[in-house]
Every structure is written in C-alpha cells, then in structure tokens.
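A.,

Following up on our hallway conversation. Structure tokens first:
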C-alpha cells in the first residue's frame, strides 16, 4: 500500500528512517571490511562439511560450449516441483545412508536439544511440493569484477497435502549466469532479518571476492532507493505480519539451486530473451523448458529439503495466464469442491503472484 506524506505516515516514516540507518551502518562496516580498514563486520568461517553434504543431492553446472547449449540468463519465473524431506540428525546415525558420515560431521556441535523448538509446528516431514517465485536482476558492470553475477530474491512456498495452509519463506542471494547456479539465504516470510553481507560464505571460494563486491553495489542501490522513497514521500507501509503459531519456526536456511542447461546455442537464447523483454516481432527459437533442482538445508534445525525437477514458467508468460488460472479455479471450486489438485495448483500460482484476495476467495 502506497501512502502520501501526511500525518498518518509518521510511524511508517520512522520505520523507513530506522531501516536507512541500519542499512547504512551495515554498508559502512561492510565496505570498510572489503577495503581492509577497521570494521565491526567479519565473515564467519565456512562449515567444511556443508559442500560435501549438498553435493550428495545436487550437481552444480559448468560453463557450456556456447555454440551448443546455454542457460537462461534471466530466471524471473515461477517454479513448481517436488520436495523430499531428510532429517539430518537421524541420517547421521543411520549407517545404511550412504552420506551418513558427512551428515554426522556437518551436525557435529549443533545444539540438538534446541531443534524441536526451532522447527515449530509445521509438518516438515509431510512437505511434498514447493512453489518458487524468483525475481532476477542483472547487475551493472563493475570495474575488475566479473559480470557473471546477478542478484535474485523471492519467495518459497511449501505445501503439505493434508492441510490447506502453506509455509512461506523469503530468500535473497546471487545467481551465477554462466553456469546457472544459485546461492541464497532463506527465512520465514516477513521476518526481514536476511543479511546479504554473509552471502559470499555460500559461494565457491574462487567467486567470493567478486560476489562480495557485487553485493556492496546492491546494498548501496537498496540504500539509495530507501532514501529516495522517503525524500519523495511515497512510502510502502511495512507489513505487520501476525505470528501464526501453526507455522512459526526459527530456522535459517541455505538455498542452493541449479538450472538444467538448454540445448539452444547461447546467441539464439540471448535473442529469445531480448525479444521476450522487448518484443519487436522477429521470429525466435521456441522457448525451451526451464527446470530447476535444488537443496534447502538448515544446520540449526537439522533438516534438508531436496527440490527435484521444478518446472519454471517465465513471468511474462504467467502474466497472461494468471487471470485465466484464477477464473478456472473459481469455476472448478463451484463445480466440484472435492477435487483439490487443480484448485491447489492454481492457488499456488495466484498466491505467488501476490493475489491474496483472489486466493482467499478460492479457498
């Protein structure tokens, strides 16, 4: 909700000013750390067993031969796929699990007694589907830094087939365009405590410096945007999310993703994406399928979710289908209340497209 600069906006303006002060402090310390001067920021050490654990579930891509294949460079899209749940504390003690020793080493030293409280009451073991909404943004060229890195953020939505509720997670991170890989942090929707400065800890060591520099530029851009919103008096009210005891949890997740390559040469893929964003009427190759595999893992909660074969729908295509989807859902609801599959599928798309009123009506 956008508001103008009047007496009713005082609380909102104070929230924005607090956010500006906090982000400015973070950016100042982060820039000082990058430049090797005195700073209150430090990047925590990586867990040596995290990458080996993740590699049991996902294989990251390599640079392709551009005359043969390519990845989508902009992955602003909606995905839906299957999810498999793994209890890391159980797996670490199960010798029949091939990666049990890696899980054991990864969980070594974790506060196991705190896990039940952190997990909350969401039925993680029953989670079987996931919806993902990604906003992908190309970064401006930075001197002496690779232009292979994009910033991406969005929402994950987890589904339990036995209940109508879903669990939403926010995520924020980086996308390496050349090999189609993603690295991000994720937390419960609305908590607003994700800190991009720690994202370099997630990526391969050879890309940490470039990632850190790109994130500095992104943080500066976000700070400028907040200041402009206050200066021009056009403010979006902060969400006052009510805690839902059924869904609330205290898990911080690492999100890893990998696109499947397409067998479309890079020059033709670039032409397709340019035409998609700014149509001129030229003939392009048919859009190839967009498939995403991934892993969501939380050491503090001792769980891992494997995302398999999530099919993506580019937002430009989705925008043409969302209204039809909503109408079909509503008609389907009237015709047959007992057939939930199609209704739930449309509900997912409507919710991910930020149409809560429509979603509420369909429920």
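Then the amino acids I'd put at each of the 363 positions:
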């Amino acid at each position: 909700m956008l508001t103008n600069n009047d007496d009713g906006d005082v609380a909102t303006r104070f929230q924005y000013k607090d956010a500006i002060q906090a982000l400015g402090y973070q950016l100042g310390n982060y820039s000082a750390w990058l430049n090797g001067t005195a700073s209150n920021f430090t990047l925590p050490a990586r867990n040596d067993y995290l990458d080996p654990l993740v590699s049991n579930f996902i294989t990251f891509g390599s640079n392709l031969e551009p005359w043969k294949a390519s990845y989508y460079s902009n992955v602003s899209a909606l995905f839906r796929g299957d999810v498999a749940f793994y209890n890391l504390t159980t797996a670490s003690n199960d010798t029949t699990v091939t990666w049990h020793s890696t899980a054991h080493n990864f969980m070594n030293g974790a506060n196991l007694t705190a896990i039940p409280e952190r997990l909350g009451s969401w039925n993680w073991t029953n989670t079987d589907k996931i919806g993902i909404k990604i906003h992908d943004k190309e970064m401006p060229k930075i001197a002496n830094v690779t232009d292979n890195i994009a910033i991406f953020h969005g929402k994950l939505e987890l589904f339990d087939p036995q209940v109508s509720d879903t669990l939403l997670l926010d995520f924020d991170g980086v996308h390496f365009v050349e090999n189609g890989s993603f690295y991000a942090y994720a937390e419960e929707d609305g908590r607003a405590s994700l800190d991009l400065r720690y994202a370099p800890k997630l990526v391969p060591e050879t890309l940490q410096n470039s990632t850190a520099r790109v994130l500095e530029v992104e943080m500066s851009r976000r700070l400028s945007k907040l200041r402009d919103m206050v200066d021009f008096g056009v403010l979006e009210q902060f969400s006052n999310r009510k805690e839902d005891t059924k869904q609330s949890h205290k898990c911080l997740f690492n999100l890893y993703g990998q696109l499947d390559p397409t067998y479309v040469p890079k020059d033709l893929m670039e032409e397709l994406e340019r035409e998609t964003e700014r149509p001129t009427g030229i003939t392009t190759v048919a859009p190839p399928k967009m498939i995403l595999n991934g892993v969501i893992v939380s050491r503090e909660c001792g769980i891992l979710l494997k995302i398999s074969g999530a099919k993506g729908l580019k937002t430009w295509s989705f925008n043409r289908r969302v209204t039809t989807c909503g109408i079909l859902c509503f008609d389907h609801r009237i015709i047959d209340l007992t057939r939930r599959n199609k209704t739930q599928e449309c509900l997912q798309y409507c919710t991910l497209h930020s149409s809560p009123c429509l979603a509420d009506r369909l429920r």
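Residues 1-42+195-240 form one domain. Curious whether your intuition agrees with the design.

B.
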